[in-house]
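Sat 14:20. Reprocessing the chain from the morning session after the first attempt stalled halfway. Input below, unchanged.
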Amino acid sequence: MIADGTAVVSRCVEQNPSCSLAVKFGSPLRLPPPPFPPMSSVVLNPQLATLPVYIPGKPIDEVAREHGLRPADIIKLASNENPLGPSPMALAAMADVLKNLHLYPDGNSFHLKRKLAAKLGVEPANLVLGSGSNEIIEFLGHALLGAGDEVLVSEHCFAVYPIVAALFGAKLVTVPAQGFHADIEGLLRAVTPRTKLLFLATPNNPTGTLTSREDLSRLLAEVPPHVLIALDEAYVEFLADPLDSIALVRSGVRPNLVLLRTFSKIFGLAGLRLGYGIGAPDMVAALEKVRQPFNINSIAQAGALAALDDTAHLDDTRANNRRGLDLLHSEFARLGLEFVESHANFVLVKVGDGARVFSELQKRGVITRPMGSYRLPGWIRISVGTPAENDRCLATLREVLGR
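Finished this time. Tokens:
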């Protein structure tokens, strides 16, 4: 069709010279230009030109289609998921709410916040819920960042931190790591009057490294009050003796501290997308202002409520993870592969050509995560699976590496 409509009207006149269009406008008809510019003239946010893109691990069904495999023959050890699956108690609770899905969820997640607050020893006013902890990270961007502000991270940080910094036009300041560990002294030196937000994950993804209790205490004590510290504790439940960071929120001594946690990892509810932030009531109130209404659906709320009570599932997951880490560490050492000792539920291992090894493993039905996007092209990240999955992964890796 011609943009001004001439072709349409000319055809109408040819077929019926007395048509109303011809009578009213004459022939040929020329319509006025549209009131809005064509899409090609729309100016996009300039930040999008350089905005990094988070690339998730491929789902099992897609890998099966690509390589002609049966989904049942594929194991996924790419996304740090719980290999034992979700809590049985959570599954039952979620099934029970299906009959009410025609109703909107509780927009304030009243019952989940109360139960979670009681478990953590804080008040509901200390909690904000998000669609995964990723959404809490985005809330922080909305609440704090603008053009010219600085976001401080350690090298090999979680990929979403740079994305959020770029999205809001902030400058990302990356401090080189020390042997894959965050350089706390370097982070403190890098703080400027323009620093608004400091992200630190411990254990860190993708390295699995743990910031020591002493270093973490120093960071929390010495970062100036104009900088918000976002302490990402997505994997904290896997630690045997973690620092009680919640005590700092509970006591009110660090109002510039927000803790990030999730139901995606040890709770096995990654498919629900549910995370939470823990912070001072004033900061949480600010984050609530940028939260979309009803961002936590009814199924997620029911599943999380039940999962909080399933201590047996949590204990089983920790035990499986500890055995899996010990096996991966020992086998990588036996194979002569460099790896980073992990405190999470995955291991970063150097395999030479990470993209090739990832591809060859995937062709054989073992999905891992290549680390090229983290500027670690010689490495892959392998999540802890069940004992059978771990054994198969190691056997396939030996085959691919010829060892």
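The chain has a mean pLDDT of 91.
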